[in-house]
Amino acid sequence: MIRILLLLLILVAGAIYSISARKLTIPAAITGVILALCVYGGEGFTGLAMMTSFFILGSAATSWKLKWKQQQGLAESEKGTRTAMQVIANAGVAALAGLVELGYAPFQWYPLMPMMMAGAFAAATADTLSSELGNVYGSRYYNILSFRKDQRGLNGVVSLEGTLLGVSGSLLIALIFAAGFGGNAHIVGIIVLAGTIGNLSDSLLGATLERRGLIGNNAVNFLNTAIGALSVLLLQFL
After folding, report:
1. Which of 27, 208, 221, 232 has the fewest CB atoms found within 10 Å of its own CB?
2. Helices 217-235 & 84-102 angle (0-180, nearest 10)
3. What is the DSSP letter of 134?
4. How many helices (H) does the chain have, and how many strands (E)?
């Protein structure tokens, strides 16, 4: 009970700071606390470490060279302050994995849930770093479907630098997982690859469905994390 109360105190303090720093709206902060509890319930402090790392890296990448991005028309609206739907889009799949682990969801517990959660966070981290920092440090930008040069910042446009930055984000999540649950280079490689697959799938969805207005960015991000989680499952059998 003391541990749970301490956890709640830390999460509420983090939520208050995020609101005051304009990283999250009030509904987003409340949503974040709820999802964090689901993540903790399934994977403990290692799950929270992955979620916190994603949030800190994502917020830092969004804020990096913000004025320049605003001048170039590349910045997110409201200076990157995340809404509740954005929080769900990025952490909802991981929270579902935590609920499955707890047995609260109508699915049988599956031993790969911790790695699938890591795959979801790896994909979310890769997507945020590759888009936010790729727009700053990329040298050439290509449409992921045609591989022809395209305009920086458009949906489905990628750069080598941004992709590599995304891989580095996935690697960090994989290393946190390995430190918490134990794992060798093979497991780390699976999580990194799953995060990269999710990130590239995000770009493919952006170049097709999102550009045509069929789905929005939140749906693309949710699918990105779902693909990252499912990729872990599939890669285990290769």
Report:
1. 27
2. 30
3. H
4. 9, 2
d(CA 41, CA 114): 11
Q: Please state the pTM of the whole predicted model.
A: 0.92
Distance CA 128, CA 13 (A): 24
99, two tokens: 């609920």
Q: What is the token pair recorded at 7? A: 């956890």
Closest of 158, 159, 230, 154 to residue 197, by C-alpha: 230
Whether residue 116 contacts residue 97, with contact meaning beta carbons closer than 8 Å, is answered with yes
Taking the C-alpha atoms of residue 21 and residue 138, their distance in angstroms, rounded to an integer, is 28
For 150, which DSSP code?
Answer: -
The token pair at 91 is 């952490």
Q: Rounded to the nearest 5 degrees, what angle is found at the Cα of 30, between the Cα atoms of 29 and 32?
A: 60
- The answer to whether the beta carbons of residues 221 and 93 sit under 8 Å apart is no
